[in-house]
């Protein structure tokens, strides 16, 4: 990010801190229908139209580091195997044998130059080609092995991070990410290693869990000791991007004691990503990568929280920490701590416990007659924009009217458009006039 962009964003954060109402021209966010969190019909649309069409975080190259390495992955439902091919290319396939559907690999991780189904030993190359069928002569003479390879799933990488997409027609990952592709360049995705990856089951709809990480309105109330010293919610600047992505950017409160920030934010022994610029070093910035990844990005970590719907009312939360190689130090793990009740076990860190504490109760409330609709403030606009994107991904006309959100946040409030720039200049002009 260049110096003028940094200066512009700093000025906008200060402007957010001074404003006394939502910015002029910002649309009124209409109540969102409550049933978006409880309707089986809406959930089915999300699964089919959003999770089958979006780029999804699948893993890190450290999990399949060498040619021949493979890993199972089933966070999106279907059984998938991610394979580091003998030719160096990382691919994803349904872990489904083309003979009678047995799983081709049955361990979570492994390494082999061929993938062999254990049922009748059909054998595939690491590029998915079927190359071995025992008793081949007993199949019809025109049995064409070349069209019975493993069924591929789109698989692309952002540096070391592996994404998959079930939609053969989907745009490439780079295009999907849009401006984030370049904005994230300073976080060294091609050098960060996988330090920790854990998952926990939550008793609430995936959006309930995720939205706790998509606004800073809650920070002073549920994170008074943990996040509040690092983030000034008043000076938070939200930016919406195309395809449903978004960013929050906020400086620490003016009252924060620098030593306190350093103690939380600059842990000894962890290597800094030198290429990270001023905002990543001095502010908290967190990105939503639509649909289910939220990650603060800083000069120490790329630590995504990834939210997987496992049913209408349950979620698997993945807590991932990626960082530069930590050498002989213990691997950093931003989101989990040792669980004293089980040897080697991990539990969610205090911040994550704070964020997830209400999930189950919220879900229960949402299923009661008392939960009518969701009013959102300007500060919570990232949540509204996320819901607009869900509906757009599903196809607005295919969302039953009683479940739909109105598409009120338009392109004029989406990157690269920034109406707040004009409001800021207007303010500067007015104060110049007043001084004259
Ligand atoms: S099901 Fe895989 S070889 Fe028969
Ligand atoms: Fe939070």
TrEMBL record:
CDD domains from the UniProt entry: RHO_alpha_C (cd00680), Rieske_RO_Alpha_N (cd03469)
Ranges of biased composition (kind: Basic and acidic residues): 418-436
GO molecular function, one term: 2 iron, 2 sulfur cluster binding
InterPro entries: Rieske_2Fe-2S, Rieske_2Fe-2S_sf, Ring_hydroxy_dOase_asu_C_dom, Rng_hydr_dOase-A
Superkingdom of source: Bacteria
Record key words, sorted: 2Fe-2S, Iron, Iron-sulfur, Metal-binding, Oxidoreductase
Cofactor (UniProt): Fe cation
Pfam hit, one: Rieske
Domain Rieske: 55-153
SUPFAM superfamilies with a match to the protein in the record: Bet v1-like (SSF55961), ISP domain (SSF50022)
Region (Disordered): 416-436
Protein name: (2Fe-2S)-binding protein
Organism: Erythrobacter litoralis
The organism's taxonomic lineage, starting at the top: Bacteria, Pseudomonadati, Pseudomonadota, Alphaproteobacteria, Sphingomonadales
């Amino acid at each position: 990010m260049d110096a003028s962009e940094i200066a512009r964003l700093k000025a906008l954060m200060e402007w957010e801190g001074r404003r006394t109402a939502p910015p002029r021209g910002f649309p009124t966010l209409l109540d969102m229908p409550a049933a978006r969190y409880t309707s089986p019909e809406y959930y089915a649309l999300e699964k089919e139209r959003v999770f089958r069409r979006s780029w999804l975080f699948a893993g890190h190259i450290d999990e399949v580091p060498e040619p021949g390495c493979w890993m199972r992955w089933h966070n999106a439902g279907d059984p998938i195997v991610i394979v580091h091919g003998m030719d160096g290319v990382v691919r994803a396939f349904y872990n489904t044998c083309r003979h009678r559907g047995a799983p081709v690999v049955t361990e979570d991780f492994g390494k082999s130059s061929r993938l062999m189904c254990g049922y009748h030993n059909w054998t595939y190359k690491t590029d998915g080609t079927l190359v071995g069928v025992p008793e081949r002569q007993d199949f019809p003479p025109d049995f064409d092995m070349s069209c019975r390879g493993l069924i591929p799933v789109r698989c692309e990488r952002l540096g070391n991070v592996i994404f998959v997409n079930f939609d053969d027609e989907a745009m490439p990952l780079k295009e999907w990410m849009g401006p984030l592709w370049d904005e994230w360049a300073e976080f060294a995705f091609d050098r960060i290693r996988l330090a920790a990856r854990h998952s926990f089951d939550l008793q609430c709809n995936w959006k309930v869990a995720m939205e706790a990480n998509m606004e800073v309105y809650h920070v002073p109330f549920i994170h008074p000791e943990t996040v509040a010293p690092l983030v000034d919610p008043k000076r938070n600047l939200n930016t919406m991007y195309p395809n449903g992505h978004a960013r929050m950017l906020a400086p620490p409160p003016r009252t924060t004691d620098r030593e306190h920030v350093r103690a939380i934010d600059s842990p000894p022994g962890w290597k800094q990503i030198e290429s990270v610029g001023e905002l990543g070093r001095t502010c908290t910035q967190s990105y939503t990568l639509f649909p289910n990844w939220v990650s603060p990005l800083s000069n120490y970590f790329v630590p995504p929280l990834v939210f997987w719907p496992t049913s209408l009312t349950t979620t698997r939360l993945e807590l991932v920490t990626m960082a530069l190689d930590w050498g002989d130090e213990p691997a950093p793990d931003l989101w989990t701590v040792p669980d004293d009740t089980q040897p080697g076990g991990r539990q969610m860190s205090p911040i994550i416990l704070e964020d997830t504490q209400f999930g189950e109760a919220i879900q229960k409330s949402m299923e009661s007659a008392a939960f009518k609709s969701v009013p959102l403030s300007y500060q919570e606009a990232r949540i509204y924009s996320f819901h607009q994107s869900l509906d757009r991904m599903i196809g607005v006309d295919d969302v039953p009217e009683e479940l739909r959100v109105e598409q009120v946040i338009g392109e004029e409030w989406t990157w690269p458009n920034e109406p707040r720039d004009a409001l800021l200049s207007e303010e500067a002009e007015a104060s110049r006039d007043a001084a004259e």
